[in-house]
């Protein structure tokens, strides 16, 4: 069993861990980098492709540094790097290792866009492209995001035949179910009206029979008034 001293040390350790977590939690969420929802993009040979990258910071930024790297099957290189002075300044490029690359983004109006455009793509351009961002205002906190570029001869057309067939079948089944429900309601309504008419007919027929047979309660039982 733990003694009082051991329990105190354990509580102190947990407290220290909790305080450290509270310190790092907002920092870990302050600077974010994104290259979009798609992890892979495709480009046709000899065309151009936009490699997206945006960043966000809860604490703002100052002299923010950014760079793009390429990692192919046997090659790694820095494609472009630069800085952004503040939220009111556009990115400034300091180094560009490929003349086919242009910086397309802007950081004005809170766009925080540092995307690059790669022109005249070749099959050798297939690989991983990583966007890095470092913010000195957050103690040089650095984040990055990676997107994979696949260069192809031509973009394959997606065959939606199976999808269309499935949608048609599902739509047909739903339509049939709706028709059956409406038909059921119509038949129920007609049967109800028919039964009501039969009841009215039976009541009327029963009254006529009583009148003809002179049964109690019928008109045949009535007597003319006695003359004085």
In DSSP terms (H or I, runs of 4 or more residues), the helix count works out at 2
Q: What is the alpha-carbon Rg in Å? A: 41 Å
Biggest sheet strand order reads 2-11-10-5-6-7
Q: What portion of residues is helical?
A: 25-40%
Structural class: alpha+beta
The low-confidence runs, each spanning 5 or more residues with pLDDT under 50, are 14-28
Q: So what's the overall shape?
A: elongated
Structural summary, described in words:
The chain is α+β, with helices and mostly antiparallel strands and 228 residues long. 34% of the residues lie in helices and 29% in strands. It is built from two helices and eleven strands. The chain has helices at 4-28, 161-212; strands at 31-34, 40-44, 49-51, 54-57, 64-71, 76-84, 92-96, 101-103, 116-118, 127-135, 141-152. The strands form three sheets. A six-stranded mixed sheet has the order 2-11-10-5-6-7, with no helix packed on it. Strand 5 and strand 6 form a beta hairpin. Residues 14-28 have low confidence and may be disordered.
């Amino acid at each position: 069993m733990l003694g009082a001293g051991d329990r105190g040390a354990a509580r102190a350790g947990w407290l220290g861990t909790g305080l450290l977590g509270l310190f790092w939690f907002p920092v870990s969420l302050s600077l974010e980098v994104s290259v979009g929802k798609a992890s892979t993009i495709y480009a046709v040979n000899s065309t151009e492709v936009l490699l997206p990258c945006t960043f966000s910071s809860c604490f703002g930024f100052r002299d923010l540094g950014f760079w793009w790297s390429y990692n192919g099957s046997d090659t790694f290189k820095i494609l472009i790097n630069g800085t952004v002075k503040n939220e009111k300044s556009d990115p400034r490029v300091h180094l560009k290792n490929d003349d086919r690359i242009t910086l397309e983004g802007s950081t004005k109006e809170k766009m925080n866009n540092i995307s690059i455009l790669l022109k005249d793509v070749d099959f050798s351009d297939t690989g991983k492209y990583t966007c890095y961002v470092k913010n000195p205002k957050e103690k040089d906190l650095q984040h990055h995001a990676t997107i994979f570029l696949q260069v192809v001869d031509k973009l394959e057309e997606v065959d939606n035949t199976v999808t269309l067939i499935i949608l048609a079948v599902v739509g047909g089944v739903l339509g049939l179910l709706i028709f059956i429900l409406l038909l059921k309601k119509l038949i129920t309504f007609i049967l109800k009206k028919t039964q009501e008419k039969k009841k009215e007919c039976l009541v009327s027929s029963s009254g006529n029979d009583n009148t003809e047979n002179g049964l109690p309660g019928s008109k045949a039982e009535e007597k003319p008034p006695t003359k004085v």
